[in-house]
Amino acid sequence: MQALMELILPRECGGCGTPGTSWCGACDMTVPWEPARWMPRHDPGVPVWTLARHRGPLRRALSGWKEHGRSDLAPVLAYRMAHALAATATGGAGRTVLLPAPSRWWATRMRGRDAIADLASQCARLLEDLGGGDAAMERALALHWRARDSVGLTARQRAANVQGRVRARGGLLSTAAQAPRGRVVLIDDVVTTGALLAESVRVLRKSGIPVREAMVLAAA
Ligand SMILES: [Zn+2]
Question: How many whole angstroms separate alpha carbon 168 and alpha carbon 40?
Answer without folding.
Answer: 23
